[in-house]
Amino acid sequence: MLVPGSWYGQDVHRCAIDLWQHTGTSLRRTAEWLRSILGKQERWQKWHPLEEERERTCYLAASTVHRWLDEAGEEARESVGGQLEGLAQGKQLGTDGLWARLRGGKERVVLMLVDSVSGLIWPPIVAAREGSRKSWQRLFERAAEAGLSLEAIEAVTSDGANALRGYLQEVLSWVHQQRCVWHLWQNLSKKLPSPSEEEKEGECDQVREELVTLIHGVLDAASYEEAEVYLASLKAHRSGEKIWKFLNVHLDAALMHLLDCHQGLIRVSPEWYWRDFRQRLSHGRNHGSEERQERAALVWAIYHNFTPAQRRSDHKRHYRHPGQSPLEAAGHPPKEITYLDALGV
Questions:
Q1: Is the pLDDT of residue 137 over 50?
Q2: pTM value surpassing 0.70
């Protein structure tokens, strides 16, 4: 359990990384929690108020925990080549980006590619901007390096990133793009009429309700023909011209999931994956450089792939593979191997 050149054993290293990764706490609180347990100090006194206060014996700092995490990130980066080779690969993927502000005010975006069937995350990248084709090209090339067969991809669900669409048309011309319905609703909500001085609020609410019903009819249609009927009703509506023009342009991409070859294609980009990522990275402020942020993202992706989903569904969340990790859903259950073993901690 000894770690060469370290004051702490392997169990402390593993506990620190797992505490930060699994509980979503900060580096400072991770170090404080471990100091309390190891030295029976600080918070330990709150748990055992009748015990006599001992001399402080543990000096673990947040910067030390950060260094251990970065070392795990180095291992994750070195293992990208062939990392997920041989796994069952779905033909439908989802992609999304998350912006983070680093120290010094720099902004970077973490780009992620997810298997829509198993939930497996391919190694992510950090780019200066998502409006560049080179950024998306680097994401797909990294996934290919890890074992993804680009020729087997049939469809990708994403938001309206023009650079991604341009890359797919130029390089992966056979891949269809499904527009994220959630992002479409965000854009459409801005085109709904709002009360003006000439209109009464009640009349405006009625018009908005009519338009929302017609939009639902288009986006949630069971067939392309049904969507065309609702789209024609939008065009004929006295306040629906702007919405009709927008949906008419994006209709094919919004209904790509109706094609026989794309049955089961997700309609929403995998934004919910970022929920846990935000907690651990504090939106990137813990990382002073783009390289460190990318290494932390690689560690998080490995953690996610090894971690099973909970068996019970929540009120708002349902799990496609309850009790299974993405690796298990992809046909390679990790068994007794943990993500800490994979990172060489």
A1: yes
A2: yes
Whole-number Cα distances in Å, 200 to 136, 193, 196, 206, 243: 47, 12, 7, 10, 21
Residue 207 shares a structural domain with residue 59:
no
Domain of 203 in residue numbering reads as 181-262
Question: Is residue 314 a part of any domain in this protein?
Answer: yes
Q: For residue 312, tell me if it sits in a domain.
A: yes
- Structure tokens of 90? 């779905």
172 and 97 both lie in a single domain: yes
Q: Is residue 45 part of a domain?
A: yes
Q: Cα dist. 95→86, 120, 217, 293, 344 in Å?
A: 21, 12, 26, 19, 28
Condensed to tens digits (0 to 9), the pLDDT of residues 5-40 reads 889 999 999 999 999 988 888 889 999 999 999 988
List residues bridging with 112 in a β-sheet: 96
What is the total count of domains within the chain?
Answer: 3
pLDDT band at 199 (very low <50, low <70, confident <90, very high): low
Angle between helical axes of 10-23 and 290-306 (0-180°, round to 10): 90
CA dihedral in degrees (18, 21, 27, 32; nearest 10)? -40
Domain membership of residue 65 (yes or no) is: yes
Alpha carbon distances (Å) from 285 to 19, 126, 278, 281, 282:
18, 14, 10, 7, 6
Same domain, 207 and 152: no
For residues 291 and 168, membership in a common domain is answered with yes
Q: Which of 262, 293, 325 is the last residue of a domain?
A: 262
Could you say which of 22, 50, 78 is where a domain stops?
78
Q: Quote the CA–CA distance of 166 and 164 in Å, as a whole number.
A: 5
